[in-house]
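Running low. Any example?
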Amino acid sequence: MAGWNMNLGALFKGQGRRADARAAATAAVVQPMVRGGHRGAADKGSLPRFQATASDQLNNRANDRFASIRAKLRHAFTPSQPVADRRMFAGREEVLKTIIGSIEDQRLHVVLYGERGIGKTSLLHMLTQAAHEARYIVVYSSCGANSTFDETFRAAAVDIPLLFHSGFAPTTTEAEKGSSLADLLPSEPISPRKFGDLCTKLVGTRVLIILDEFDRCESGAFRRDVAELIKNLSDRLGRVQLVLAGVAADLTELVEHIPSIRRNIFALRVPKMSDTEVLQIVSNGEREAGVTFDTHAGAYVVALASGSPYIASLLCHHAGHVALDQGRSTILASDISTAVGRAVGEFQGRIGKPAQAHVRRLFEQGRGEAMAMAARASLTSDGAFSVSEIKAINEVDTRKAQAVVDQLTADGLISQVDEDEIERRYAFIEEGLPTYLWISWAQQNLHPETTPKSRATAAAAAS
């Protein structure tokens, strides 16, 4: 290992005795590391470790008395993933009942839309489970920017057994081999009419084809073809129904050629959660993980969530770990405050740097309250909002609400998106800004002792 000393000496050559001493000290550290010997404190277990194995088993080396609760907490609050466990599904029972009724009783196709994080995919998971129980064939597909009709529905055909085609008896060779409808498709790209023709031959079952994240597809042709397929299936009494879901402000933004299929679809804008439903998220987590949210902590979550299941789950997730880190299974309002700080860090990373700098300047200029009012209105109104909504949601007068709009428009933070018969509507220039602004303002101004508890406390009492 003399070479290491020589190289380091050469590196510092000409810098005097201090450089020689530094080289020798560095070599003394580097040499045993290269040999695989002494590694300092790292060998003493001071570095962070995963607390569970890849098979979701507890890691006995983690030495955490709350390891079991932590594992359950991760399952209870999953802000980055949709809810797939019925036990953790909060609220939305009437919404799910309505969707099922439109599919089963009216044989309609379904379109779900709304803002990101409102719970559309969780609803689709619950719908899928209910349909499986009723022996529907469910084909789930997540759309991408480059999705095509041929690729999407050829893949769907693979999951539909040829056994249910009227032209093939159960005992035919093709059916017994496990062939699917895809085996009947031509090699050239399929059209809506061709796929619709194939679907009309199905007997003895019903099929749901779920296209999630439909808004991500950039092809107008794909959207038009899907609309044409819906019309074709409806007119010919096909036993295949489509369920589309995506981020959109309205129905026409998500699906093209609406007039031709309006009577064939059930469209639902997924609403914000009520305060009681948000508290159900909290209660489900308590039951599943074995933790307890005190009354003030639950009310704090409701006040901050503004009807968003994503924000509620995120705050509960972080606050739960904060409490466990402090040796408690009871979650206090102060833990929610700490969770808010962590959430701000996450949201900040999703905002462009120019927007971050702009927002920071506006906060410094005293625009925080105005931004928070508009952000809260945006979150509550699923994106676009009006002056009257700022007034109602924040309980201010019309002049104050109008001043907020005028100020933020002049600041370049919001812009007008449309003008209906009643009043103008506005939206933030960047999708992630409302959540970031609301939580950032809450971090600075909302504390357990000052959080508005009128609706939150009432919801807690009702639960």
Summary: The radius of gyration is 28 Å. The first strand starts at residue 109 and ends at 114.
